[in-house]
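Below: protein 1.
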Amino acid sequence: MGRLFTPMTRGKKRFSAVTALIVAGVFLTLPIILSVTAMAGGGGGGSAGGPPPEVLEQRKAAAAAAAEAGESVEGEAVKIETGRDVYYKTEGPAIGMPAPITADNETFYPRYNFESRVLLWVANQQHLYYGSFVLAVPIFCMCIEFAGMISKDKAMAKKYDQLAYDFIRISLTAYSLTAILGGILIFTFLTLYPAFFGYLSGIFRPVMHIYALTFVAESGVLYIYYYGWDKMREGVLKWVHLSMCVILNVIGTVLMFLANSWIAFMMSPAGVDEQGRYLGNIWHVLHTALWNPLNVHRILGNMAFGGGVVAAYAAYRFLSSNTDEERAHYDWMGYIAMSLGVAFLIPLPFAGYWLMREVYAYRQQMGITLMGGLLAWLFIIQATMIGILFLTTNYYLWQALGRMTGGERFQKYIKYLVFILVVGLLVFITPHTIVMSPAELKAMGGQQHPVLGNYGVMSAKNGGINAIIMTTILSFIWYQRGNKVPTVSWSKFGNIFMGCFFVVAQINNIALAVYGYFIPANVRIGLSVPQVAGTLSCLLLMTPLNLAMLKGGRQLGPIRWGQIPPRSQYAIIMLATAFTWMMGLMGYIRSSVRLFWHVNEVMRDNSPWAYTHTIGFAANVISFNVLFFWISIMFVFWLGTLGAKKVVIKGPVSEPIPAGASPQPATSH
């Protein structure tokens, strides 16, 4: 009888577990859903920096009673002023306090014998690094766990499941550090910039509780997801486990959007009048001119950065491994992480173009300051870093061809790709205007260099970066074909079509780049759309077409995971480091474009540090942030190795690994 009731008992336990998880997820997300719904309705009447709603209602009732009695009621008790939104140009009740007018003294800007702005800079950047990492990794885990669940190969399903577990285990310690750094950041704001932080937190008061609830919900879901891994490895519970990861990513995305709203408001304020008074619509405060492009840009940036950091961890473990089995596993792990990171790196420049275009649309002077004025040289450095990222990515793919049986047939074409990459990079980093002293301007005879000034136009720069991206897409397609030959009946036509498509897209890109020299600047900027369209077509059409051609293709031999030169792993580490440095640079550029404003054109920065740093000083601080992050993340990596269980991977070392498969990782957590 015990045996008969065992399946029923197990079913009841499974049903109870699923119900408990669903209830936990609902309770964790319900406060956020209710808060967001209220926020979408205009903030629910919450007043930032002004009197509570009940006080406003009392004032209105007193005013109405006085009007009925024919009395004249004076004072602030009845008078409710209106203001005009600085961005949306709508009228609203000015129920918030004006932005404080600060002065250069200890009250508004406390001193600690060091530049307060640099202290805040370091605290903010470290929090941003770790926040980006812990927001990106769960998305990777979701994709990898889903790939394992739909895989028909049980061995590969276990490998993908273990890989997803390895990813989330790495991020768990980083998540704790993110919370600690967030607390340090708030403490730094309160201590060094009390007036500014008080005003900003007053403006965002209607959504501050949402931010707190989101953080609590994310923590709860993360721990359920991680510690419930072994209990939910099969059947329906596995789908529930994946659903928890989906919820985790939704909550993390909401958290990032709310954090981005602070940055967007500082750059392009909305929902306030010229005095900085809140006008009662929190959605206007959040939905500023730069919020959407900033969200897209940071999502892609976080994903590329997170992939680079995880790939660097895999490279670190590869280089420190003592067995072929471990090197094979971490080689595969590094490839998966790098592929995911590069997949988001490729569209990242396009999101950057959109963000810059919206900056120009919001305030043309801000765009000129960024691209052709005070901060122009920083964009030359940024272009150089982008070039390093794509060159390193291509180098890794070319090295990875060496572990593919048959990949050597592509080696003879690499020199042509190198030529395209180098030429594209040289065009991309060529400046059009540069910042010079009056003496240099006089010696050169104008703002533009007599030679370089004729070449560094935007259409040419777009042509250079699009040529680089298309070359990277081609390198990845070659890697996909490394050990395979298409056998579909239309393979010859498909090869010809793909070749012609890439050639036509490149010719279109170059022709538009050259055509930009013969048209006005306001027309030239529109050429970026057809240039980007050609590149995205290569990515979104040719990559799936190549996979369709390789389906059922003839394999030339196995993928020899782990048999890759160590220099390829150093390339991965360089890729991650370069992206970390570029993230720091772009954060500095985004902050510096406000010049001497805390909130652009609303709250002025009257501190003794209201000036733009020199490029050398900024580069030193950015480099310090990068160094500090990588020292701390190496400590996180080391902690991750302490928690990993040693599992012997069975099978002879000399046994070839099937093509498209990976080495057997640890089978338990």
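Below: protein 2.
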Amino acid sequence: MFASLLGRMEWHYFWHGWVQFGGQLAMVGGVLTLLAGMTYFKKWGWLWREWLTTQDAKRIGVMYIIVATVMLLRGFGDAIMLKLQQALASGHSDGFLQPDHFQQIFTAHGTIMIFFVAMGLMFGLINLVLPLMLGSRDVAFPLLNSTSFYLYVAGVVLANISLLYGEFGAVGWLAYPPLSELAYSPGPGVDYWLWSIQIAGVGSLLSGINFIVTILRLRAKGMTLMKMPVFAWSVLGSMILVVFAFPILTGTLFMLSLDRTLGMHYFTADLGGNAMMYINLIWAWGHPEVYILILPAFGMFSEIVATMSRKRLFGYKTMVYALMAITVLSYLVWAHHFFTMGAGGNVNAFFGIMTMVIAIPTGVKVFNWLFTMYKGRIEFFTPMWWFMAFATTFVIGGATGVILAVPAIDFQVHNSLFLVAHFHNTIIGGVVFGYFAGFAYWFPKIFGFRLHERLGKAAVSCWVGGFLLTFIPIYILGMMGATRRLDHYDPSLGWQSLFIVSGVGTLLIGLGVVFQIAQLAYSVWKRHELRDTSGDPWDGRTLEWSVPSPAPQYNFARLPVVVARDAWWEAKRGGKAIFSGAYSDFTLPKNSGVGVFIGAFVAMFGFAMIWHIWWLAVLALVGVATTLIRRTYEEETEYVVTADEAKRLDMKSQKAAA
């Protein structure tokens, strides 16, 4: 009777070998240390009041970045294990990982880096900056923003529980059927993959809706669409993609879960199912996802290059048109991921041409940045170093993408490490470097002090050198015929030396991560010396630099009035005030634990579905419904900041900044 209440849970899922035990021990030890520290220093009340229940978009953004950083460290650990296995597993040596465990790590690495690192950093930085940049006090739906974050956390929790109890999918990060179907993956690994990204994906969809409404409805007075900063345009394009692409992912994963849970046949050969339908659907989400991630990074680079060059962004309108062109064209290229499916020459030619066409607006942006820098008084602070790292690496990734757009070439290198190198070229060189640049650029606005420059530049140098040392050998290996998901190979192929060089490059990237951690720790230690007393450490151009650092919870005591692009820059140069008129009352949302409880119940629901604990799934859904119904009875969800209080807070923040 007791066993039936636990679904398909069994004791043996706790033990999978000593390598996994090391990961389990590290995770449990880290969590227990955190819990003990919070208890010892009596910080639980502070954590609940000031952070976990906050509705302030900036604090939610910080929490996104913290969680994404933790997942980055775990995903990087997975990468080191993969590289070490490939460097060792040649000939009679089997390496230190079992084949199934290697495939689980491979799947976890891709899933974590895309869904829980890149998406987390993206939403974190948007939350930090977007309302400030638009001249708004908050996002359109603060409670929805909090709920979105905790759905993301629920997905993170499920993905990490798989390390402690159970297993992760050994099916690749997109889980193609029939391998991901029940006949070939009967364990809970694919279900952990399904429910972790399904839940986080719903949170992403809600965030997309929230940010679109924020951009369309909460811009400062006078800020027409064509006066918006380019970063806001890039977020708009990215969130449009989120709103249209993530329902495809949700529907696809739901059908796969029905196949696995209820014995349906959407993607099996039985009863008319078709595995290729899954692959079309997953890439109809998957390729827009690449641009969901890269568009905000393009916007960040646009703000950084213009500010650091002391010039207006060259070709503002062409930059906007390029961003919107990518938004549309990104839906017309998904089939280039499977030119070998046998769709025929006409289909392959169309998607090959469209893939080349989408490279044009991407190239336009690169030239816009270069012309912005031309004859500018460039200051090479750390954010600009990240841009130069991007310009070096991303162009290589773009060029290899155009090569892969030729179906005849793709037939030769499809499923090879050449494709792996190209993908990392665009995601690391574009997305990750972009988000690191944005973090360094806006850090003083959120925390009130700058990051240490020399340590930051050392981190950039290690990342770029390590990146090239890691992936140039991977390109070569791909051309030599090495395939993805390879955990063992024959020594006569001559691949081992290249795998070893690639592994050394990964360690150099790891040194870059160490420098970043040291940079953050040293900057916190020296925060008084690095303090931003002006609120405008870079001599910025947009509205976020018009308020003191760190930005107050309400962002603006008086809302700005915009008359031109680069509103803050124009106000400084023209001597015109962008804050005028009398102070007035305004409202701010009260803290709420609704998002926390919804996230907890949804995580419980996901765990129950993974292990077929049906009573727990029903209980979790009742918990979600009860939380939402209870929220509808709360009448006092906001508090009023009076005009006098707004004036006092404004004067206090200005005095503190001075």
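The radius of gyration is 25 Å.
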